[in-house]
Amino acid sequence: MVWDWIPRNTALIWGALQVHVVLALIPVVAGLVLAVPLGWLASRNGAVRAVFIPAASVLYTIPSLAVFIVLPAILGTQILDPLNVVVALTIYTVALLVRSVADALAAVPALVVAAATAMGYKPGRRFVSVELPLAVPVLIAGLRVAAVSNISLVSVGALIGVGGLGQLFTEGYQRDFPTEIIVGIVLIVLLALVVDGLLVLAGRFITPWARVAA
Amino acid sequence: MDGGIDVIEFRSVTKRFADGTVAVDGLDLVVESGKITVFVGPSGCGKTTSLRMINRMIEPTEGTITVDGRDVMAGHPADLRRGIGYVIQQAGLFPHKTIRDNIATVPLLLGWSKPKARARAEELMQTVGLGPEMAGRYPAQLSGGQQQRVGVARALAADPPVLLMDEPFSAVDPVVRESLQDELLRLQGELGKTIVFVTHDIDEAVKLGDKVAVFRTGGHLAQYAEPAELLARPADDFVDGFVGRDRGYRTLGFLSDEVPLGTITPVHVGESATGGWTLVVDEEDKPLGWVTGAGPVAEADVLPGGTLHPVASGSLRSALDAALSSPSGQGVAVDDEGRLAGSISADAVLAALAAAREAA
Ligand SMILES: Nc1ncnc2c1ncn2[C@@H]1O[C@H](COP(=O)(O)OP(=O)(O)OP(=O)(O)O)[C@@H](O)[C@H]1O
Ligand SMILES: [Mg+2]
């Protein structure tokens, strides 16, 4: 371990970390925005669910490297374009969250939904004020999995030359320089832990009611 | 009060579900305004279905339902529902909203400002007997009985003229249920809403209902009458079987009491009893209990008495109960303030019953 390599390369490390965060988390946000309406459709319509859920599972099994390489052909982007990684991870996130959203909405007690309808909620407002908030705890669980898995998948992007902490990894390997590899691994793990912890905190903050029930 | 104008009318209403189940079959019924109408009957007889057709949670297959002359199928269902309070079993509260916000739901949907809706919610918490400290709690932090009160408050929030209640008290224990029933009657005395109340408990039905509709399996109306009439003259064997074996005793609850009171000489604590059973009263003449034997009366000697019969509001049932539950065999009657009014014997109650039968 060459400790003084770290202070000499803070700019490089900091830059890789920033790229990594952006590449991992933009897809989480985009995936969430897409998954909520799709999951809602799946929770309301058995036929839609019967198509979406297996399709999502299949999508999730395609190796990430293959997707990174195939996407440029489909999107017409350059192979090194970070957009490929963002799009690929968004697809994974959607695939993962559609199921979470559908399950969470299906788990909202029918009695509560019936009460809301009987009070005079129209379906759109009922979804925003009653069903979605009640789905948040399950949704947060799905988001945690998606965020951590994205953080690890972004490193794979380094293999096709997209930046991020994975780059420390590939470089360190090419130069046979373990310090850089270790710094990359440690930072990826730390980043995953921090993001996961923040999601847990955010979940607690927006669902104070879920804690009193326990 | 804006309650008391709404009549709900079912005209040849049939509900056939997609799977062919006929839940309600040719129902003709007029729910009177400002009264409590109870739908009662065995499980699966179509009570909930009938109730939910009133606020269009379920749409009738045939026939029409009007509320205050307006067909429920006209207009947007959400608008109809905001004018009809709805209380369901286990309250159906929103777990993620505070008690205050649960109660404020309909006012907010109607576009009231937040402060106004919340002030209204807090006012209603008081109406239904919930302490203000509960306003910020979540439903999971309340007991079943308290949740049920929140359910009632939520239904009353926008002061709807019509209230639908589907087995609202069935999930709480008998003692709490009784106090909730009493409170509903008290509230109704003030508010005069048109209430449709569903239960499968005949005791609850005759206690709460101004009129009771007995449903038979298959969605038919078996009898629609005032409770006393229902108990005294069941329309057929089904109703007879449903109102149960105790109906003779229950009927007593609807016969106003014409029992002559006997005189009784009570003693106060510290005074001397003359032997046998002696009633003890406090300084305000309120009954404390009984002592046996002669000699000075100590507070520790007083045995608890039976139930008391309120002369002004009591029935033959409460008179008989007072006589039967008293350790001395003499029932105790009290006035509005709870002061001793006289004694009641079981024989006198039975004589009054015979007279009432003759008159009927
Ligand atoms: N959505 C539905 N689809 C098919 N059948 C239904 C549906 N809802 C109710 N039913 C049937 O209609 C009949 C009447 O049901 P309903 O819920 O009105 O009964 P209920 O009198 O309220 O009974 P309970 O006392 O058990 O609540 C039952 O046979 C029930 O199985
Ligand atoms: Mg029912």
Q: Can you give the helix content of chain A as a percent range?
A: over 70%
| Bound ligands, named by name, code or SMILES | adenosine-5'-triphosphate, magnesium ion
User: At CATH's second level, what is the architecture of the largest domain in chain B?
Assistant: 3-Layer(aba) Sandwich
Low-confidence parts of chain B = none
Architecture per CATH nomenclature, i.e. the level-2 architecture of chain A? Orthogonal Bundle
Supply database-style keywords.
heterodimer; A: 214 residues; mainly alpha; MetI-like fold; 85% helix; 0% strand; elongated; B: 360 residues; alpha/beta; Rossmann fold; CBS-domain; 2 domains; four-stranded antiparallel β-sheet; 33% helix; binds adenosine-5'-triphosphate; binds magnesium ion
Fold topology:
The complex is a heterodimer of chains A (214) and B (360).
Chain A: H1 5-8, H2 10-44, H3 46-61, H4 64-75, H5 82-106, H6 110-119, H7 123-157, H8 166-174, H9 178-206, H10 208-213
Helix pairs in contact in A: 2-3, 2-5, 2-7, 3-5, 4-5, 5-7, 6-7, 7-9, 8-9
Chain B: E1 8-16, E2 22-31, E3 36-40, H1 47-54, E4 62-67, E5 70-71, H2 77-82, E6 84-88, H3 99-103, H4 105-109, H5 114-127, H6 144-156, E7 162-166, H7 174-191, E8 194-199, H8 202-208, E9 211-216, E10 220-225, H9 227-232, H10 237-243, H11 247-251, E11 267-268, E12 272-281, E13 287-296, E14 308-310, H12 316-325, E15 331-334, E16 340-344, H13 346-359
Parallel strand pairs in B: 3-8, 3-9, 6-7, 7-8, 11-12, 14-15
Antiparallel strand pairs in B: 1-2, 1-4, 4-5, 9-10, 12-13, 15-16
Helix pairs in contact in B: 5-6, 12-13
The structure holds adenosine-5'-triphosphate and magnesium ion (MG).
Keywords (chain B): ATP-binding, Nucleotide-binding, Transport
GO molecular function, one term (chain B): ATP hydrolysis activity
Protein name (chain B): ABC-type quaternary amine transporter
